[in-house]
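TA notes, week 10

Several of you asked for a full example with nothing omitted. So below is the full record: structure tokens for the whole chain, then the designed sequence directly under it. When grading your own attempts, check the secondary structure regions first.
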């Protein structure tokens, strides 16, 4: 797939103060190099703030306003097909807000439907993601990511989800990514980098240094890399990794079997 898109890596959050925890990295490819020009908090988007729904609405509108953008979003786009009654991921996303009214009800429904188990999708096994979409640690991310961002964009055909929809030059592309999976593939997964301690900061600096060393990345302003290292939550760093995942995906379209494509058409696919 030709890139021809502005690349955005989004570290997502479903927390009450989501605007503080969401980070967006922006980049473009120049001569094979991912050139990162910005890294900002979700609260800095037009019309945004710290509040969850205000910041998520701002993110949705930001995506909608970038028809030449390719956005990597780090929350599950779907569920195991055993739990999905719809024929496609798109039908599932469109129906989601009417079928699931709160994060807690969503998780309860998933657990009840799965007999108390945390079922994982085929793509999660392949990408080695840490959790099921309704695991206690991320079920709010899944709920708010789908209900507040994906569903309204897909319902109105304002964006296209890869690989289950055909890309369009007139619509932003949406890709599910997982920073942990990408770090594993780059052999940089391991050191604990989320936290305020000196060891955490050193780990962020170490990962960022090796990302630049191992992958064709360039920061167009020195202040960007400093901000990434100084963000104690590690969310800014995750957004950089998300941008790399998108860049990799656009350069190397995954080779999927016919059976895989049938499953991913319902469950979604993680690019890593």
């Amino acid at each position: 797939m030709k890139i021809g898109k502005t690349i955005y890596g989004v570290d997502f959050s479903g927390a009450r103060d989501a605007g503080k925890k969401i980070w967006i990295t922006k980049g473009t490819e120049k001569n094979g190099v991912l050139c990162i020009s910005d890294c900002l908090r979700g609260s800095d988007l037009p019309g945004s703030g710290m509040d969850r729904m205000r910041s998520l609405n701002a993110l949705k509108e930001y995506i909608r306003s970038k028809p030449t953008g390719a956005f990597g979003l780090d929350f599950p786009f779907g569920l195991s097909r055993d739990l999905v009654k719809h024929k496609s991921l798109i039908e599932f996303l469109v129906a989601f807000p009417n079928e699931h009214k709160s994060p807690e009800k969503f998780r309860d429904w998933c657990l009840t439907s799965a007999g108390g188990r945390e079922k994982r999708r085929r793509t999660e096994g392949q990408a080695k993601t840490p959790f099921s979409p309704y695991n206690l640690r991320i079920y709010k991310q899944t709920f708010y990511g789908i209900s507040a961002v994906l569903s309204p964009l897909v319902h109105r055909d304002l964006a296209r989800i890869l690989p289950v929809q055909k890309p369009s030059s007139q619509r932003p592309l949406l890709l599910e990514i997982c920073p942990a999976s990408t770090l594993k593939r780059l052999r940089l997964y391991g050191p604990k980098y989320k936290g305020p301690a000196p060891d955490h900061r050193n780990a962020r600096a170490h990962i960022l240094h090796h990302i630049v060393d191992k992958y064709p990345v360039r920061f167009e302003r020195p202040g960007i890399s400093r901000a990434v290292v100084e963000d104690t939550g590690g969310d800014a760093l995750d957004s950089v990794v998300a941008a790399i995942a998108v860049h990799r995906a656009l350069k190397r379209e995954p080779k999927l079997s016919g059976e895989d494509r049938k499953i991913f058409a319902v469950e979604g696919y993680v690019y890593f």
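The two ends are 16 Å apart (CA to CA). Use that as a sanity check on your answer.
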